[in-house]
Amino acid sequence: MKDVPKLYSKEFLVYNVHSLLHLSNDARIHGPLDEFSAFKYENNMQNIKKTLRAKYKPFEQVVNRICELDTLEYSNLPICRRFIKITIGNNSFILKCGSVVVLTEIISGGKYRCKKFCKLASFFSYPCNSIYVDIKLVCKLSDTEIVINTNEIAAKCWLLPYESKYVSIPLSNW
């Protein structure tokens, strides 16, 4: 136990030890470590760091570099259409009308089948109402599907579980 500060540094000691306490339980739930570990992405971290040109807004810079690379590879497609996928965690969008939807099927010709969240509410009110920045508390995904066009999408978003609902957080505007 005396070597723990040497191995994990004093700054992150509590966090790292706490994470290690949960590791065996996480392995029981999620399977082997390489099934749910982020280490496989660390090999690519050096390439990501090389795309940064300044210390200011690193996330925005990485997204811009990826878009630049995509534009070279897929110059015949509009940028936003390249990021529309059905995979979980990659399939939620905020529409220009303010609705939050989950993509269920890519039809064709810029048309998509989606399910819309029926209930939207503010997630926080300070320093401003979260709806003003498109952060919403959503729940009750509709059973019926709607068809939308690419030009109806305002932004891609994350859906983060929160209690029995989700928090919708915009990632980028089209």
Write the layout of secondary structure elements.
Layout: H1 4-8, H2 13-30, H3 33-36, H4 39-42, H5 45-50, H6 58-73, H7 79-82, E1 92-95, E2 100-106, E3 111-122, E4 136-149, E5 153-162, E6 165-173
Antiparallel strand pairs: 1-2, 1-5, 2-3, 3-4, 4-6, 5-6
Task: Report on this structure.
By secondary structure, the protein is of the alpha+beta class. It has helices spanning about 5-10, 15-30, 35, 40, 45-50, 60-75, 80, and strands at about 90-95, 100-105, 110-120, 135-150, 155-160, 165-174. It folds into three domains: about 5-35, no CATH class; about 40-75, no CATH class; about 85-174, no CATH class. Strands 1-2-3-4-6-5 form a six-stranded antiparallel beta barrel. Strand 5 and strand 6 form a beta hairpin. The N and C termini lie far apart (about 50 Å). About 10% of the residues are buried.
Q: What portion of residues belong to β-strands?
A: 25-35%
Helix/strand structural class: alpha+beta
What is the gyration radius calculated from CA atoms? 20 Å
Distance between the termini: 51 Å
Number of domains: 3
Summed up:
This protein has 174 residues and is of the alpha+beta class. 33% of the residues lie in helices and 32% in strands.
Short descriptors:
174 residues; alpha+beta; six-stranded antiparallel barrel; 7 helices; 33% helix; 32% strand
